[in-house]
């Protein structure tokens, strides 16, 4: 069988340089823990190296990496389902300053399905249409989750402010 | 500055330094080398089995069917052998989607590998092109391997072709489906679904026995589509779509 020609050949060094930080941020927010985030990024790149998928362009490549990373984080969270609490120390340990650890803590405290969508939209700048294709859900579902995510964020904020 | 700008600023403080990036890549390459070594061991084992089969065919017959089956599975990818959830998938069933399988030979995946592989399929949900191990167990493994190497594209859903070829009874199919549902529930701790809406939930999907046994290919294809309606941009990339409603399997089916 003739070998399929790669439209956009995978290159781990380049991909790490271009998307490494973005994936690490996503995994950090998803797992709330530096070690787990690094493990998730490593696992993601291992799959990238071993699977060598055939990408159409850099956007396709980035979307694939984000989906794989979020899936790995989902598995990590599933394993530790009963101990999902993330302390402020752990968040500071991710490399954020004192003030920023507080605000990041609010995002990490969100339910997983809101956390990922809020992160990709407000931090990574993905639009609703792009998120729809990326996560395999309809645009209206994306909008609904963003709205619920914002509401949940507000609730957590108000609760913390009261304490 | 809005609260969301602050959030962005906070998240952007999280970075990997050059050394960490390098370490991650080196660790990946080390693991890849180990993985290749495993494959080499599997290949060597396969050569040994073939040699024994050629020079001493009686030996394998004495060993019995279960051992043959285990060796066949191990020959696919031996490092996957201890996983309890496995799927067979072949690119010919993926139909117009970017398959997770790079050629037409087909592979057995662990649950973990399958999770990332399903993300590349577009038109149909992952179950469309997969045959879980619980169903493969219904037939002789050698026959399954021979059949999977000979199937042709354009004939619809993998499990429908499997059922037709091996003449699986509805009762056996339903029992395998229940067993598969129980595996999903115990392995993932998630509710099995008759229809998954999100990509992340596709792993929990089991078969709709009634629909499969209708053998109505048009209705089956419609049911297992990822989206009811797809909106694509000029370059053909999906920009949005309407998903059908999720259907959860009733508890008494798998408990």
Can you walk through the features of this model?
The complex is a heterodimer of chains A (163) and B (255). Chain A is mainly alpha-helical. Chain A is built from eight helices and no strands. Chain A is globular. The N and C termini of chain A lie far apart (66 Å). Residues 1-6 of chain A have low confidence and may be disordered. Chain B is mainly α and 255 residues long. Chain B has twelve helices and seven strands. Chain B has helices at 3-12, 18-55, 57-63, 65-76, 111-117, 133-136, 141-150, 158-166, 170-188, 209-212, 217-223, 251-254; strands at residues 86-89, 107-110, 130-132, 193-195, 229-232, 238-242, 247-248. In chain B, the strands form three sheets. In chain B, strands 2-1-3 form a three-stranded antiparallel beta sheet. In chain B, helix 2 (18-55) packs across helix 3 and helix 2 runs antiparallel to helix 4. Chain B is extended. Chain B starts with a helix and ends with a helix. Residues 35-84, 94-106 and 114-121 of chain B have low confidence and may be disordered. The interface between A and B is large, with 61 and 50 residues.
